[in-house]
Here is the input.
Amino acid sequence: MQVLHERCAGLDVHKKTVVACVRVVEAGRAKSEVRTFDTTTSALMALAEWLAECGCTHAAMEATGVYWKPIWHVLSDGDLELLLANAAHVKNVPGRKTDVADATWLAELLAHGLIRGSFVPPPEVAELRALMRTRKQLTREKSSHVERFHKTLVVANVKLDSVISNVVGKSGRAMLEAMIAGETEPQRLAALAQPGIRASAATLGEALRGRVQRRHRFLLRLHLDQIDQIDRAIASIDGEVEANLAPFRTAVEQLCSIDGVSRIGAEVIISEIGTDMSRFPTAGHLLSWAGMVPRNDQSAGKRRSTRLRYGAPWLKTLLVQCAWAAVRKKESPLKDRFQHLKHRGTKKAICATAADILTAAYHMLKNGTFYEPRRPVSADRTSKEVQAKALIKRLARLGYATKLELVPVPTP
Here is the structure.
């Protein structure tokens, strides 16, 4: 097999150590040398110096959690070309699993050009990604505290969440603050609601009539304080994102023109895929990287599974949320697209809609354009024969036998 890189290295990365194998071809023969380094900054600098002394031009490492990032940052300061390998793509033969063997195997694959580098975002995109992922984690943590808040109210037999949609909103917050302070009269608590609440004063009074004890008030106060602290942290992240959004402001405005994509959603998409679409040859490559296309699993002529791959979970969940927002919007081509595919299953239809959003984002970022909705998919564009077959199948699943008879339709 042809050798593409005569001086290269494979790095097996761990939390405390990194095993490096340098592979050098001299006089037609390959020689390997393995050394182990700590992951402290000084040790990583020594690793970089050793690779430079050996004349290495390329180095490959596996994406092991976040442990590869400090090594990447140190080695990227030099002239060494780095490749980040997907661990699932570079597995060795079973039964040969050691740190030295892993490093040697990576160097061997790299020398013959058999490693495909994963997408590593540039520093400014990586900074935005860290902020947006932390924001999402805080949002999930806030939701957990709200659920614990609801649990405490249920234990106290306060049915406030049954009559108002947002218990920690302005009206719910005013009533709960008074309840925590010691107020027990339901009508006085109900009088604190804002005029926009749909529930009547009598309904609110009945919902607020419970058995709130001291331990309930303590827990409610505790969860409210946690929610407020998380809200302040999210606001701080939003301010930091806004202060560093200048390179991506135009791209965010472009993505916001897509149905269902909010400003936060646009910022998340940018943080996950960046703005340079040249790293993805086609929109299909981006969809495959994000895990938005069915897997190819066939055997003996039969397709065994069409489940989506794991892909990019931070991006995939956001795209599905945007797709649900789009299909609930009136006069949206994405809604029409969802309705057109809904007969195949709701999950398949929403994932296809999410893939359409990502496809549109790819072309908009690549060409610098804004969203231009395609012509809505209409049932009239489908032939009568296809529509008839689909209706016959649906009736057959319901247990009805049908016989078609052509009836002339009068022209308008």
